[in-house]
Write a structure and sequence with these properties.
Transferase Inhibitor Protein From Tn5, Chain A, domain2, 50% helix, 4 helices
Length: 105
């Protein structure tokens, strides 16, 4: 239930206030994971910090969202689509792996 309400919040903030800084809703650890994904994909070069929309796109890309111009906003998806709905779960799994492996963090 907590993840579902967070997904809805992230999706709503990304749509209604895309320019908000991502630090308002994402933890420092999550932003570090998104920085790796950002570097891997080459998206959003030349920007220092992520906006809410950019963080949502990178989060959704972790679970299969392509992030092309024609794809639109990553929204809460149904069961067959990959959108923001699975992204926080993917972030959580990555963070759990980082902090459960000694010498990684």
């Amino acid at each position: 239930m907590i993840i579902a309400s967070r997904v809805l919040l992230l999706s709503r903030l990304g749509k209604e206030h895309p320019e908000l800084p991502a630090e308002l809703a994402y933890s420092a650890e999550e932003l570090a994971v998104l920085a790796v994904k950002r570097k891997e994909t080459g998206k959003y070069p030349g920007t220092e910090s992520l906006t809410m929309l950019q963080a949502n796109v990178l989060t959704a890309m972790m679970v299969g969202f392509w992030g092309r111009e024609c794809d639109g906003h990553p929204a809460v998806a149904d069961k067959k689509d990959a959108g923001v709905s699975n992204g926080p779960n993917a972030l959580l799994i990555v963070l759990l792996q980082i902090f459960s492996c000694p010498g990684v963090a």
